[in-house]
Amino acid sequence: MNSLPLVYLARHGQTEWTLTGQHTGRTDLPLTSRGEREAQALGERLRGLQFTEIFTSPLQRASRTCEIAGFAPRATLDSDLVEWNYGDYEGLTGAAIRTHRPGWEPFRDGFPGGESIQELGARADRVVHRLRAAEGEILLFASGHILRVLAARWLGFRPEYGRNLLLHTASLSILTYEHDLSQPAIGLWNDTGHLQAW
């Protein structure tokens, strides 16, 4: 039996739409200057760790975070790590959506013309399946919603549970197991201690 993997989740640094609260699915935005500094701080936090595998979303906000953090030469692009497809709501804020859909909640009501929560969960399941077959310490760079759903599926919860797992930009989280008993667990969540200096 393989040794149990330890999975590090790194959310990308800040973008302009992070600041405005616009839903950023497949729109391929660059990092802001602050986002680049966040990526550098994330790289410093991860320095010295030895990863057996590194994966990144191909979207530039994640792949650039991976590059600035110093891991691009070893990273593999993984299309299953791209952010939720928000369809007709791409680029809209939650407040704007609720002006014509009062009470709208993304994990419950979804995104017309986009990807359902079940489809997003299926992508996350493919990633979890590959992670469970791996060994050692693994590092992923991706966006907030896909990482939240990935963590929910790692724990064996429905994809909708991701609504309870908030993630800040350039945060670090760890998926692990309870005392080597093969019980999936969260070892660290939404840690931004490396960003507190500024």
Structure characterization notes:
The chain is α/β, with parallel strands linked by helices and 198 residues long. The chain has a single domain (6-83, 121-195), classed as Phosphoglycerate mutase-like (Rossmann fold). 34% of the residues lie in helices and 17% in strands. The protein contains 7 helices and 6 strands, in the order βααβαβαααβαββ. The chain has helices at residues 16-20, 33-46, 60-69, 94-100, 106-109, 117-132, 144-154; strands spanning 6-11, 53-56, 75-77, 137-142, 172-177, 184-191. Strands 3-2-4-1-5-6 form a 6-stranded mixed sheet. Strand 5 (172-177) and strand 6 (184-191) form a beta hairpin. Helix 2 (33-46) packs across helix 3 and helix 6 (117-132) packs across helix 7. It is globular and about 50 Å long. The mean pLDDT is 95.
The first-to-last residue Cα distance is 44 Å
CATH topology-level fold name: Rossmann fold
Helix content: 25-40%
- By CATH, the architecture is named 3-Layer(aba) Sandwich
Count the domains: 1
Structural class: alpha/beta
Average pLDDT over all residues: 95
CATH superfamily: Phosphoglycerate mutase-like
Rg is 16 Å
Q: Major sheet, described briefly? A: 6 strands, mixed
Total DSSP E strands:
6
- Amount of beta strand: 15-25%
Low-pLDDT stretches are none
Biggest sheet strand line-up: 3-2-4-1-5-6
What is the N-to-C order of secondary-structure elements (H for helix, E for strand)?
A: EHHEHEHHHEHEE
Total of helices: 7
CATH class: Alpha Beta
Global morphology: globular
